[in-house]
Amino acid sequence: MVNLTQPPELTAQPVVLTLPVQWGDQDAFGHVNNVVYFRWMESARIEYFRQTGLSDLMARHGAGMILATIKCDFRRQLTYPETILVSASIESIGRSSMKMKHLIYSTSQQAIAAEGDSVVVMFDYKSQRPVPVPDDIRAKIDELERKIAPPLDSEQGS
Description:
Elements: E1 15-20, H1 34-52, H2 57-61, E2 63-74, E3 83-93, E4 97-106, E5 111-124, E6 129-130, H3 135-146, E7 153-154
Parallel strand pairs: 3-7
Antiparallel strand pairs: 1-3, 2-5, 3-4, 4-5, 5-6
């Protein structure tokens, strides 16, 4: 991965990955295929989970995150060769769900190329039901987010 200076658009993002655009990421129209943007967001989301301990919950509690919804607003085309920065942050936490934000930044265009939102749910895979986000995970998320921003808003009921 290339070591790049963080652009101002990403300074409020606690997790930012630097990734190359691969030749095979392009489609027949010569730009990065839409599916690739979702993979990039997944990579940032999984890194966020790793940094906060969410990825260890399955082994400890038999629960883990499940993706409930995801969307992407495409702002600019990306092509090979390119290096992108992709971020992940949590905007809000409900009882069992979290709303995440993702930004995909083009280093060659020096601009946001795409913005994504996703909702992940804390899920007990044995009972096949949502479960509350554990307090220790909430604290780790708050700590990671506070490094760059004020404390998170909590939603009621989700």
